[in-house]
Amino acid sequence: MNGDDAELVALIDSELDGDAKGRMLARLAGDEELRKRYEALRDAGAPIAGSLEALLRQAPVSRLRAGLPPEVASRAVRWPFSGVALRDLAAGFVLGLLAAGAMAWAAINLAPREESENYENWRSAVAEYTDLYTKETFSSQHPDPSLAEKELADVGERVGAHLTPESVALPDLRFTVAFMLAYDGSPLGAIAYVDKDGAPVMFCIIANGASDAPVRTERRSDLSVGWWSRGGRSHLVIGRMTEEHAAELARTLESRV
Amino acid sequence: MSEASRREVRAGLEACLARLWRYAVVLSRTRDAADDLVQATCLRAIERADQFVPGTRLDRWLFSILRSIWLNEIRARKIREGGGLVDAEEALTSDGAKAVETNILAAEVFRLIGRLPEAQRETVLLVYGEGFSYAEAASALGIPVGTVMSRLAAARSALAKLK
Fold first, then answer.
1. CATH architecture under which domain B116-163 falls
2. A9–B96 CB contact, under 8 Å
3. How many CB pairs under 8 A join A and B?
4. Mutate to test the interface with A, among B157, B162, B163 (most CBs of A within 10 A)
5. Contact criterion met (CB below 8 Å) for A127 and A220
6. Cβ distance B162 to B115 under 8 Å?
7. CATH classification of A92-256 is 3.40.50.720, yes or no?
8. What's the pTM?
9. pLDDT tens figures, A191-218
10. The complex's ipTM?
């Protein structure tokens, strides 16, 4: 190591300030040997960040996640709210969701509305927070097959349904994450998909004791909802799509779940 | 604050696992030790979650725990047990380079990084891998900024000779 190396490297790293930077730049302008040393140090360090990035990509995240204590591992589903600014979220229950951070299993109580039957009201609550999802909310989620299977199995267990990657697969939609919420004391499973443009589509199941009901559809703002009830559970599919499409997705899921 | 602290620590742990593992690999130069180190870090973080200040950088708090465990427990134990530390010449050539072997250039550079002394490797990781400023790295490592500068310069100088 040469005597000037520390300052040269600091200059390369944009960490040399004011006078010191000015002096070094002036010396570099008139000293060819110093310039060669600068270039050698710069070139030697250039691939370091890429090498460390490559190592990061090799991290055995699934194995490390499996080593987490159960109370953390069960909450270790990546939370999909990244990219949503707090200031943009006015609804109190959404703030509650965010306060819960990445704890996808947290029992979050969506504030019930004034209507009397919770198996009617929950559609309103789900529509309200679905309206806040953006193309960025879920599109970065790419769970490996084993994680997807585990998330679905865990959610299915909580709402009393058998959920697998196959049973919830929908045409032209990519599964991103499954997580638990709660509504008015009832467990509410949420399965998020994105379309080819990243637009979110949600499939939600709530174990609310509702009577069986066939698939119906409705519009809520610019969202279409397809919903039905069976086996003491209510289900809905919601997203920015036509009502016909929502009905089609609902019928597909009704036949499998 | 303690409940908020615990919640934030539990919620943020998973997102930091890969970076903790990379830090652990750079320090320990073996995958087995890195796995152990990350697991111990997570357990310690949960035990001491009350000490985390909500709203501050969880990743850096976790790094400090990992580093403390490495310096005070795992590395010390390896020395006590006679296993010693991996020779600088062996560096990350086995486990570390294997991890990046899909990228030949990255693997070669990583092999070279692995030959650096631990203090230099760690400083290189924090500044060039984690984006710490010199001042932040100095604070995290408990050393003057001038020492950060000299470590990075020594590391680059060594890499320039090894290439």
1. Orthogonal Bundle (1.10)
2. no
3. 159
4. B157
5. yes
6. yes
7. no
8. 0.53
9. 999 999 989 999 999 888 888 889 999 9
10. 0.83
